Amino acid sequence: MFAYSGRLSEQSQGPFTSRTPASRRASTTAGDARSMNDQLTTMRRPRVVAHRGANDVAPENTLAAVRAAVTIGVDAVEVDVQCTRDGVPVVLHDATLARTTDIARRYPHRAHDPVSTFTYAEIRQLDAGSWRDDAFAGEPVPTLEQVLDALRATGVGLLLEIKHPETQPRLVDAVADVLACFSPGVAVTAQSFDAASLHAFGRLLPEVPRGLLVHHAPRQPVLEAWVSAVNPWYGTVSSSYVRRAQLVGLETYVWTANARAAILRAADAGVEGIITDRPQRALDLLRATRRKTSIR
Ligand code: G3P
Ligand code: CA
Predict the structure, then answer these.
(1) Is-above-0.85 flag for pTM?
(2) From the CB of residue 251, how many other CB atoms can be counted at a distance below 10 Å?
(3) Residues with Cβ < 8 Å from 44, sequence gap 6 or more?
(4) CB-based contacts of 159, cutoff 8 Å, min separation 6
(5) Measured from the CB, is residue 139 less than 6 Å from ligand 1?
(6) Where do Polar residues bias regions lie (predicted)?
(7) Which domains does the chain have, with CATH numbers?
(8) Atom 4 in ligand 1: which residue has the minimum CA distance?
(9) Which atom of ligand 1 is nearest to the CA of 80?
(10) 93 CA distance to ligand 2 centroid (A)?
(11) What is the pLDDT of residues 96-117, one digit of tens each?
(12) How close is the Cα of 162 to the center of ligand 2, in Å?
């Protein structure tokens, strides 16, 4: 790996969506030392993406977690979006509200019903913070619009996972509507495990980059070149995979790398981004070790 300047690297970072994959950058002419030096100064660490916000210091998928991630200085925040019965995109991971809200107290007979069976008026009454700590009592389930507001003008991007779209037929349309109105000023990338939904989303908002979530790095990344990124589980990613993905213009954001060894392994593989439950740890590690994405 090349040595690189962390300071120069940090300064070279653009918006979350504007990074040019290595394969799309101008190649260095053989023997052109000046060009090589120019490239060396633009190398930088992988982007750090706070998984469900900074969920190690605040309840996951809340505005408190989003704001904490901004304070830490991450490059982007990942959240999960679903749809209420009346079509409001809200931020929540699980298919039900049982684990992360006080739904069992408010609506005991509906505690394990799907999110999509509740109206937003019902969901906005819930406490999505107390389950984690009394200090977060009253923290609401945020809407997508509120998350966009919290990120606007911060320079922190949004990696938006379209969650459970196969059981929520209105979700893709509703997310696209909100993004069309409220995403200016926030660099958004959409991602999903559901390829059909990502395709549908791309038809509605082709200007928003899309990442396909997968459990294993694909053998033939070129088959996924219809998206801008393929985001595999970190344990399946190698440097040769990242190189092959870059050759067809695909970025790689791995999930969910939390242990020090996993974070460093992903950085060594040359990934463009690391989605993590330990964003402060990742930033500290990557800055301290001067890890970087590789140049091809
Ligand atoms: O960003 C990828 C990761 O969030 C996928 O897993 O279950 O945490 O949404 P999950
Ligand atoms: Ca997610």
Answers:
(1) yes
(2) 25
(3) 4, 6, 8, 9, 10, 12, 13, 292, 293
(4) 16, 49, 76, 77, 78, 79, 189, 191, 211, 253, 275
(5) no
(6) 8-40
(7) 37-295 (3.20.20.190)
(8) 51
(9) 9
(10) 7
(11) 999 999 999 999 999 999 999 9
(12) 8
